[in-house]
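Many introductory courses stop at the sequence. We go one step further.
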Amino acid sequence: MLCGPKGSEMQTTAPCSICGRRVELFELPGNDEKYCLECSADVAAVILLTTEIDAATFAGRDAENMVAEFAQLSGRLLARSQSA
């Protein structure tokens, strides 16, 4: 279907809330934003890590490895969002 100026094709797919790619998007429970598969996996991992880090800290257990993984995922998400 052609529409828009000079017959340009209009994209109907919304962009990923993080990286801006126009691909199939996924919703995470309790979250209004939609993400591509790669970003949704990272966001889900960040959510789980946050819960596990809090639980480990509350129980007095070492959470250093989880904090490092959280930092790595956060950095990857930040880099993706800045390149969009």
